[in-house]
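Request:
Um, any thoughts?
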Amino acid sequence: MKLKLKNVFLVYFLVSLTGLLYALLQLGQPCDCSPHLRAAAEHLRRKDLKISQLQAELGRPPPAPAQPPEPEALPTIYVVTPTYARLVQKAELVRLSQTLSLVPRLHWVVVEDAETPTPLVSALLAASGLRFTHLVALTPKGQRLREGEPGWVRPRGVEQRNRALDWLRGKETAVGGERDPPPEGARGVVYFADDDNTYSRELFEEMRGTRGVSVWPVGLVGGLRFEGPQVQGGQVVGFHTAWEPDRPFPLDMAGFAVSLPLLLSRPGAQFDPTAPRGHLESSLLSHLIDPKDLEPRASNCTRVLVWHTRTEKPKMKQEEQLQRLGRGSDPGIEV
């Protein structure tokens, strides 16, 4: 059957028109994009959002920094440290001085158990960068530990701590550092810090606001994990201790601080060199306060911020052998 040319053209035209109409109907329909293209678009959108946020932050003024209190507005902490000549003395004092250097408004009162100041301690204090006062007080022969005696037999550091109290009261002359005692009416706190303990910097801020006598626990002392006051309702009601709990103040020397005005108002308050074992702290505090008026610090005495550590006594057996052979360590090198 022969098709006419006109009919063929008509069929072609209708098919083309149908395809054109279908294409027009598909315009505006959602694009069936691949997952990779959608992820890329989302990533670009998040980038644009982050850029907008950063531009907004750059346009804001920076927040005002928190202003710490002016050091001059803080009460001064007078840290009293008795010390004596021994192989570990310099190591102990260096360690302590570097802790104290982190504390603002602090005055270090170092008292040597000696007749005259030693070059070692004098140089160490001068290099410490701390405000300091250098004193000397020789322990009387009758109060010194004898060879082989344990350290707890006789109270130690009594003469030195009392010499520091005399200086604070304007009754003693310093041999180095700042020689003038605190001015009348000065705000301050007095803390007795032995050179062999370990102190948290936070401890000193806990004691700074002391009004009378503040107290806290001491770790690794008295044969216990810690000793310290027991507190109920913000008041000291007893003491956690194993040895002579009936002492007036069963506290370690590192466990209390005294307000400077209170100390100066009681000129007779000092440490008693004849106090029985464990009563040295009580011999001072009994002149200053009643136990019920103690001020608990360190979260009501639930945190340990000072430890009664001691450096192990060095064994010098090899040194002694070399010295006998004339080959000992150079004595000119300070240790």
Residues 18 and 24 are 10 Å apart (CA to CA). The radius of gyration is 38 Å. The longest strand covers residues 224-232. The mean pLDDT is 87.
